[in-house]
Write a structure and sequence with these properties.
single chain, 5 strands, 2 domains
């Protein structure tokens, strides 16, 4: 694929945090598909190009097989993908199907079916990265992924059903022929032009979004004692909202609750219980004060080498020395990131 292992997880059509039950994940999959307008445009293009229900069903089944395969494998294997690449490929798929539609239906469908499957594989990689940002527990991850995938398929079926209804209505009330082209052919050509335009628009939005997000990532590093990297930490359990924002060194951090709110767009800070009193006071004031909106903090578990970590859905700030300024930058960068609002 060439995108596995690159930084910056995919965030198109955010999957909401705070998911607890199997039905929650099914509903989230449905919502994800129905709100993903560029994915829907691709499906529209495939159905229009197929020209008949059986062929359309076969092509969409290949797309579903592709994204279901990589969604499950990539999530279980903890593969991460690059946001700009995945969103760019999705946009390119819309342009691709629109251009093919303008050229005319393929004489041989094998190559087109292979392309549809390939786009499905990339789509699944993006979905897997987004699900991993929720911090799923390893004991429940498979059931949650399958439930989410079922939701995606249901959403896809709903979209196809609505599209076929529109096509049926269009056939019953054809566009009048003004002598240039048959009415339905002229309408289909206009639809393919719109698909190309929609794909170009989606690609432009991806490029603009990547440029806008770059400064926030670059400025979050703080001093030399702190580094920002892609998040690899997961939290145990599903949990709910923690009972309070800050846990003292003598208390136990509710890891499952912290994982829950990270999925809701929070920043979780895990600090060494041996912090100096003055540093602990500074951290407590930050977390519980107005600057610490959507921040929780608690003592780190045994084995953490860093003085503190700050974790959000996509990145981790690690500091070998206490650096509140770096933490403030990290939190501010996440608050200004559009993904922090689509996560929660």
């Amino acid at each position: 694929m060439g995108v596995v292992g690159l930084s910056e997880p995919a965030w198109a059509h955010g999957i909401t945090g705070g998911l607890e039950s199997i039905p929650d994940f099914v509903l989230s999959g449905i919502t994800h598909m129905l709100l993903g307008w560029d994915h829907l445009l691709f499906i529209v293009g495939v159905v229009l190009l197929a020209g008949e229900l059986r062929r359309a069903a076969s092509l969409i089944s290949l797309f579903a097989l592709g994204h279901s395969t990589t969604l499950i494998i990539a999530t279980l294997s903890r593969w991460q993908v690059n946001a700009a690449l995945v969103d760019g490929v999705i946009a390119a798929s819309v342009v691709f199907v629109g251009v093919v539609g303008l050229i005319g239906r393929p004489q041989r469908w094998g190559w087109f079916a292979a392309a549809v499957t390939g786009f499905g594989l990339v789509h699944g990689l993006g979905l897997a990265t987004r699900l991993q940002a929720l911090g799923l527990h390893e004991e429940t991850v498979l059931s949650r992924v399958i439930a989410f995938n079922i939701g995606v398929e249901v959403g896809q079926l709903i979209a196809i059903g609505v599209l076929m209804l529109i096509v049926e209505v269009a056939h019953r009330f054809p566009v009048p022929n003004n002598g240039a082209l048959p009415g339905w052919l002229r309408t289909r050509r206009a639809a393919n032009v719109a698909l190309v335009a929609g794909g170009v628009l989606a690609g432009t939005l991806v490029a603009v979004g990547a440029v806008e997000q770059e400064p926030a990532t670059a400025t979050a590093a703080g001093s030399g004692a702190c580094q920002v990297r892609d998040r690899t930490e997961t939290f145990q359990g599903i949990g709910g909202h923690p009972k309070k924002d800050f846990y003292e060194p003598t208390e136990t951090t509710p890891q499952d609750d912290f994982g829950h709110v990270v999925g809701d767009g929070y920043v979780a800070v895990l600090y060494q219980p041996t912090l100096a009193t003055a540093q602990l006071d500074e951290l407590r004031v930050f977390v519980t004060g107005p600057d610490g909106n959507k921040v929780v903090g608690g003592p780190a578990a045994a084995g953490q080498a860093e003085t503190f970590k700050a974790i959000h859905a996509y990145q981790t700030l690690t500091c070998t020395q206490f650096d509140l300024a770096a933490l403030r930058e990290f939190k501010a960068g996440w608050a200004n990131d559009p993904r922090s609002r689509s996560t929660g």
